[in-house]
Amino acid sequence: MTSDTTPGTSAPESAAPLVSLKNVNKHFGDLHVLQNINLDIARGEVVVVIGPSGSGKSTLCRAINRLETIDDGEITVDGAVLPAEGRALAKLRADVGMVFQSFNLFAHKSILDNVSLGPVKVRKSKPAEAKKLAMELLERVGVANQANKLPAQLSGGQQQRVAIARALAMKPKVMLFDEPTSALDPEMINEVLDTMVGLAKEGMTMVVVTHEMGFARKAADRVIFMADGKIVEEATPEEFFTNPKSGRAKDFLGKIL
Ligand code: ADP
Ligand code: MG
Question: ipTM of the predicted structure?
């Protein structure tokens, strides 16, 4: 067991935001891809991020668990600044589950191993316990009967649900979803969205990049509209979809609705 310094301040649990971005800037060369982003996400909150391609949505998600560095500003998760590297980073990163458009499962490991190996490695769980938890999670996302197969033997919708189970196995404090259904055949989208709605209802803190308006209306507490690296608009889903304020948002919704 490691005894890393305890992350976090001693702010009262419920009041402090779980994820906080303060004046975050990120460039790729000359491209100012995140422009002074300020965003607080409360415990249990579900935030849907939408916006045109290239607006910085993926970079925002990737910055939150430090798959991308930022140039300046600060990002905290449960009060702790993500360290740059090393074991402390792995530990804190495990607090932030991420599900990508491409499912990114380990191709040569069984479904069960895909879900149970992370907790053994990073959380130092006992293998038997990790397997038990993995089976519970596979049950919950509806693919327990596939546990001994390889990822390629599953449909895209099933693989994405395994990816969600894998992220949940780390007992994350927040889950990030970056266009989790955009690589799926239409008939598989709902099985993944339903799993996500279930998580939202159970109180998971979630940041979801998606253009699935049905999901946003059902599950989001807040919609954030990004364009050109900026948060242009924030509203409840109801407000945003029925009465977008900015020209950019109106234009965008006109194209996708
Ligand atoms: P979105 O997810 O909203 O489509 P991204 O965050 O992926 O947007 O990208 C924002 C901008 O940054 C785009 O113009 C994209 O081409 C650029 N970009 C993303 N990743 C990189 C990278 N690793 N190197 C250079 N440019 C990048
Ligand atoms: Mg993206």
Answer: 0.98
